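Quick one:
INPUT:
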């Protein structure tokens, strides 16, 4: 079973830059999308290309902002899109689906910057992290297989961005944000990519300034985290840094089919 995640930075824009061809080649069973930035009625041109997929999209109340979407080869057994807090739900950042015993979360974690890059949204960002953690804690504690995929908007360690010293005071690499990811790891969540690849130079987001991506001056902020109950089923984790169409690239895992029970 192949599960992929991609912040598409606007699905309509990414669609015109090769998204459909990528999806056809992906061999994915489940695909989580973040920063869709469109309502269902604005995606009508995409639906014919997705007719073989079960699809679910959640838009933000604010037009052209945030939003997540989930595509799957088989229909999920159930779907949840609410975190139980209007302040979070209004931004369309969360989906939870179940396939048999497997729980999959697709989330677009907030950026900590306010309008003036003033770090004013870090409290909101950390509260979102904690709400997702708390929601999943009973499942993790009972040993259920859970995968949390998406744009986490945080580089966990110095190895996860090209210029750590220059970014210690920037959202995405402040001590408070990194500590929140540490808390997940201490609780037993597995950073699936690092379970297979310990080395440097692997990133999932690059500034759109000219030449930055070509020089691989990036950040690894997109993840698939596995609960202790899911970790034994992991077979592979990867970053598709060669795939363009967004300022992010896809990430994913391959898991044993037995994970669904």
């Amino acid at each position: 079973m192949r599960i992929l995640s991609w912040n598409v930075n606007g699905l309509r824009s990414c669609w015109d830059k090769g998204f459909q061809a990528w999806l056809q080649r992906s061999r994915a069973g489940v695909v989580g999308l973040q920063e869709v930035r469109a309502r269902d009625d604005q995606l009508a041109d995409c639906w014919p290309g997705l007719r073989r997929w079960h699809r679910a999209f959640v838009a933000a109340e604010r037009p052209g902002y945030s939003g997540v979407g989930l595509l799957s080869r088989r229909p999920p057994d159930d779907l949840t899109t609410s975190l139980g807090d209007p302040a979070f739900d209004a931004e369309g950042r969360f989906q939870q689906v179940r396939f048999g015993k497997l729980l999959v979360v697709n989330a677009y974690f907030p950026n900590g910057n306010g309008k003036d890059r003033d770090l004013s949204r870090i409290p909101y960002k950390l509260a979102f992290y904690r709400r997702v953690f708390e929601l999943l804690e009973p499942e993790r504690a009972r040993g259920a297989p859970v995968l949390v995929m998406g744009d986490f908007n945080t580089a966990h360690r110095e190895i996860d961005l090209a210029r750590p010293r220059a970014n210690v005071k920037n959202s995405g690499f402040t001590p408070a944000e990194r500590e929140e990811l540490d808390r997940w790891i201490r609780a037993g969540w597995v950073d699936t990519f690092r379970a297979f690849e310990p080395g440097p130079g692997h990133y999932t987001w690059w500034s759109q300034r000219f030449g930055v991506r070509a020089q691989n001056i990036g950040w690894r902020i997109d993840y698939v985290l596995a609960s202790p109950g899911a970790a034994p089923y992991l077979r592979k984790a990867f970053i598709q840094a060669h795939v363009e169409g967004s300022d992010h690239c896809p990430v994913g895992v391959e898991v044993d089919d037995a994970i669904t029970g």
